[in-house]
Amino acid sequence: MGVDQSFPQAAAKIFFPYYHEQLEKARHKKIDFVHYTSADVACSIFDHSSIWLRNARLMNDFGEIHYGRFCLDHALKMHRDSFISTISEIDDSLPHELDNALRNLLPSQISNTYLLSLSEHGNPTLDEDKHGRLSMWRAYGGDNNVAIVLRSEALLDNQASINAFGSPVLYSDENDFGDHLAKVIQNIGKEIEYLRQQDTRVVFNYLIRSLHFAILSTKHPGFAEEREWRIVYCPNIWESSFLEEFYTSVNGVPQRAFKLPLKSSKDVGLPAFQLADVVKKVIIGPNQFPEIIFQTLVEKLRKAKVPNPESLVTVSTIPLRR
Q1: pLDDT-above-70 percentage for the chain
Q2: pTM metric for this prediction
Q3: Which residues contact 119 (CB under 8 A, 6 or more apart)?
């Protein structure tokens, strides 16, 4: 049994409804994204025209992964009967395979997942394009922090080509998470006949990936102001020739990581683009040495052949108290 060529697009709507809705919203509104980091890391990004994805287990709060799994387990208990009966209509072997995957496969996949955290940017009420976001200045980048604003089309329009995927964070408690799982079950039920015509293994893989992304991209609703997205790369599931594997040490922890180039590669067949096409703006956070950091970042961008870098770099005037 084969797979319809349009199946990946259909699968996004069936198995990833929240992702699909948020992706269409981001594309329609041309929402920009921002990466809050340190001035040191910003210099490295501009020097090498690349940004790092690090292991999910090294997130600022690995408890987020446990929270995502808690929400999923709670939702599966709430909707287990309808979930099992629905996927059984596709193939009666799927419930057993699902149990095995939840027990063995998902933990392994999470340990082999690499992430980059971004945030939606540009809330006009807060004048974020001028000041940045106070809560993010407090949380990320240390004493000399920088916000790099990235154009959304450079990140969202080529995901399938590079096998790294933008995933909007769902801010949810365990009950709301159950409602989202119920939506997935409902979608599967509506498309049973269509799904039966596809390769069962491919359908199952999409189902598992939807649960995998849900664990990685769910946070407590108290964090909703972050408006976070994550670039997710799973090399054991979707290998990419575009991302570059390397080993480094961060805070004394030797680790595997991946570089996401912020420029095109002939090997992948992407439309030509350079760092200047990706970086829209750079906001320097409140610190003691804004002029020195400004001069340095402007020079880094100039060497990266970004035109008129002085017009891209600004300094936030938020009176941050540390």
Answers
A1: 92
A2: 0.90
A3: 33, 34, 35, 36, 133, 136, 226, 227, 228, 229
